Amino acid sequence: MKLLFTACCLTMLVFGNTANAQSVEQKLTGMGLTLTAPTKSAGNYVKVVRTGNLLFLAGHISTRADGSTITGKLGKDLTIEQGYEAAKAATVSVLSTLKAELGELGRIRRIVKVTGFVSSMPDFTDQPKVVNGCSDLLVALLGDKGKHARSAVGMVALPLNAAVEIEMVVEVE
Question: Phi-psi category of 160—alpha, beta or left, where left has phi over 0 and alpha has psi -120 to 50?
Fold first, then answer.
């Protein structure tokens, strides 16, 4: 009996307690977020390129679940909080592409790098606070696997007047 108990404890330590584990998709749903069908490329490029166990994802703009674009400039049309939500929306778009590529988001080993582009006025300097919408969501969904290197930069304009664009490098199993 003691041997069986020890084997069960070791199994849980090695593999985790999967009975109570939520998938990334379930966590998203619990947050009221919905993955959508990935959008088509707007030009002569692809949304994701795989080399080895790394996925390089093209920039994904801030879109709502209904497909409409979250538009405007930070420091003029949008508050930091609205920009934060736009960054989350762009991240959901990236995750939708990842889901289509991988079949399940549980295959993500690590978010390696995030680049956040923020449409902003010349005197707006809180781009990192906006891109935190992406970073906070990734850590909430993936824990330590969601922690990443990051750049958050201001742009004079983004495609379709989008408020935020997010691109990523992701390590997968």
Answer: left
